[in-house]
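Structure (tokenized):
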């Protein structure tokens, strides 16, 4: 008699390892890894030199053409929920000259208002214009945030 084989559980495609971007076997592990900011891939056990790579990987997931809108919204929620001191935010933004890296690092701050202020203070004119355009493009996602002041919302009319 042949024993019945268990069919493997179907894992949603947006549960990717934040380091290797390989499909994670345990979706709960993905959330745990993001929550604890552990810089180790569950599949390959590869270690990162710093935690910045985790957010670079998340940025690729957010901006990737293959990522579905639900996955992008969930990743934005994870990024918005992370608590990073404002001094650390200023240090990261001032260290990166590239707009994409700066915006990825700015996403790590605890609220959108301090993110926008850091971009305004630490960037050149062209970078400010590009950041303004990026914020306009993604306004659907952050506009409903309760942490925004009416003064800030007035800068980005719908």
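Design, position by position:
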């Amino acid at each position: 008699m042949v024993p019945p084989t268990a069919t493997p559980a179907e894992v949603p495609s947006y549960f990717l390892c934040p380091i290797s971007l390989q499909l994670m076997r345990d979706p709960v592990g993905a959330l745990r890894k993001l929550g604890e900011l552990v810089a180790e891939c569950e599949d390959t056990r590869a270690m990162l030199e710093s935690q910045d790579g985790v957010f670079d990987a998340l940025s690729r997931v957010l901006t990737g053409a293959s990522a579905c809108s639900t996955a992008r919204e969930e990743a934005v929620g994870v990024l918005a929920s992370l608590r990073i001191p404002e001094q650390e935010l200023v240090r990261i933004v001032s260290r990166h000259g590239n707009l994409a890296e700066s915006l990825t690092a700015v996403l790590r701050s605890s609220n959108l208002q301090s993110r926008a202020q850091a971009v305004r203070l630490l960037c050149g004119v062209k970078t400010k214009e590009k950041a303004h355009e990026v914020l306009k493009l993604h306004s659907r996602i952050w506009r409903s945030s309760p942490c925004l002041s009416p003064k800030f919302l007035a800068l980005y009319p719908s």
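Reviewer-requested clarification: The first helix runs from residue 27 to 36. Residues 59 and 107 are 9 Å apart (CA to CA).
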